[in-house]
Write the structure tokens for this entry.
Amino acid sequence: MKTMKIAIVAGLVASMLAGTAMAQDKTLNMIVIEGGDTTAMQAVADAYTATHPGVTIKLQPYPFAQFFQVAELRLRSKDAGVDLVYVDAPLVASYASRGFLSPVDAGISTADLVTSALDAGKYDGKQFALPINNSAQVMFYNKALFAAAGITPPDGLTAGATASQAQVDELASAKRWTWEQVADAARKLTVKEGGRTTTYGFTVEQFGELYQLQPFGESLGTDVIGPDGYTAKGYLDSEAWTKAATYWANLYNEWGVSPKSLGYGEAAQLFGNGKLAMLAGGTWNLPGLTASGVDFGVAPYPYFEGGKVLTPTGSWYVGVNAGSANQAEAFDFASYLTTSAEGTKTWFDKLQQLPTYKPLLDEISTGAEFDAFPNDVFRLGVYDSLNTAKARPVTAAYGQLQDAFRTAFVDIANGVPVADALASAVQKFEAAAARVAP
Amino acid sequence: MTQSRTPVLLIILLLVPALIGLVVFRLYPIALAVNDSFFNVLRGNSVFVGFDNYVALLTDSAFWNSLKVTLWFNLLINPIQIALALGLALLYVQNFKGVSVYRVLFLIPIGVSLPTAVIIWRIMLSQDGLVNGVIGIAGVPAQPWLTAESLALYSIIAIATWKGISYWMIFIIGGLQNISPEIYDAARIDGVKAWQRLIFITIPLLRPTLLFVLVADVSINFLLFAPIFMLTQGGPAGSTNVLMYEAYKSGFVFGDMGRAMAIIVVVVAILLVIVGLQFKLLSGRKEAR
């Protein structure tokens, strides 16, 4: 009996000791996207924990295709196993409106962040998420494939050359290709052998995604949905979007210059293997493409002839789960990641994404190390984010919009008539959005 | 010999694990689904809406399309699977040269997990995949198996059938081995032909087995989700958008649990009606054997 008592007391003491140890050593769990983002976040986390003993940061990576669903489920269930969460810009409204995120700590100074990027992290005038970086899309082109086909490539930034911010501004404002020029070149660049395509002329990086394709229709004059955030009739099925979607359909069916159903990351692989002549994609592909050894140039993101120049923008934010037990520690890391010189620099060096931290943007525009290729590509990003960037629509039904849009554009690439696919997308989005509209 | 009393306690003891499983994994989720289908989440708050989610389904064209796809899918896949499984089982119990090779070949799909099988089929059915290569030899142009509105559902039926029939075959083999050989011997002496033996002896005596296979197969195919999730996401143009996928998307992609649960309850209700009918039709008539 006596040994039993001793055992119980010893057990209690041990558990109390363990309890105090846990109170000091905090573990922050963060859900992130698998791949380059995780590598970059690990680098920032390592730099942070080196100066913050007692804090461990555990990354939980998920594939892009599953990330949105996992985040939605874990936030909704107030899962305390998540402290920090990656938030896609257009989802801030949806998460904040449902109380998933804690309002950003007032003690965090955001004076050094780009205002438009900060605004996209607000809901009801309150900051709910901090921008990790911005994004910029460009068009990569394979110089050897253009030479082999005997076509003049677009004006762009290439290896061996340097470009000042003024020269880049000139390139972006006066020498940007149109989608018509892209189609023309793509048809000449596509090589088919015995019914199989061995070289594709052109593809976008994100197959059927709203982020990538929003400028298609909007540059022709009509937004993807109405200002109320819940109407798509007269917008997604408008003349402008029909024209844009017809161009998209032709890429896959009429001209056969683009590969169908590319998964996440497959377009960049194809380009890196020299089997794709033009790739409209993010600047985050630069490190991978440079390493692949393919000889490429970088041109500004195209637009439709007679339309307005618009480019994709907006990227990932970091938020703190309202259900997290480590609010202060989580915000401290979020602040380091987004508003400190070291944190933003580590992230930028690893992932090569256009920053939202102003001192870093100034460094890109004026720093000598950004004169040469491929670093000068970021100056293109600076120009676009100041002049042509168009944010995605703000609506609590963004997930519904993204899904309806993707379904329609994947179907169109697979041969469903444009008018049918757009009409069905309008109907599906409005029905689903009506269920979350106030 | 003395007649021992019914061991009630033992029966209860033996049934308890199964009953607990039934309640925890079947009845409780159904009750939860029914309950959740009466609520909607608005601005983070759960609001009781009564039958609103069901009423909304009545005018919801996505739901009706999905219901149509689900019914058409099941109308095709279940008879095909059972007929093929029966055919394979009849072959399986024969004795001919090479029967053991045949037996092994048809048992392989059982050993492959469904996601693995789906991934392999996806590669084989891709534009430059094995299937198109094989039909290319015969001069047939490459087909968009999973990306054409006219083909995708049938491709999924083919994959699910490939995966499913050997499993059902095993049950039918068991049923076949229960039929006593004397009946066949007697029939043979009477000069009954092979096809008559199948229709008048084998199938009627196989009825209890077929009933089980039919009910279990229909339930599984009504709830089929993985191949659609992995291959087509309900597309192209909604042609493979079965109710299970529609419910999944509603609940887990859009966060609209009320609608998702209402759809699930409808699926369960349809399934109960169908299974009830099957029981009535196949085991209702107690005829003389």
About this structure: The first strand of chain A starts at residue 26 and ends at 33. Residues 14-23 of chain A have pLDDT under 50 and may be disordered. Residues 143 and 295 of chain A are 6 Å apart (CA to CA). Chain A has two domains: 2-134+314-368, 137-312+397-434.
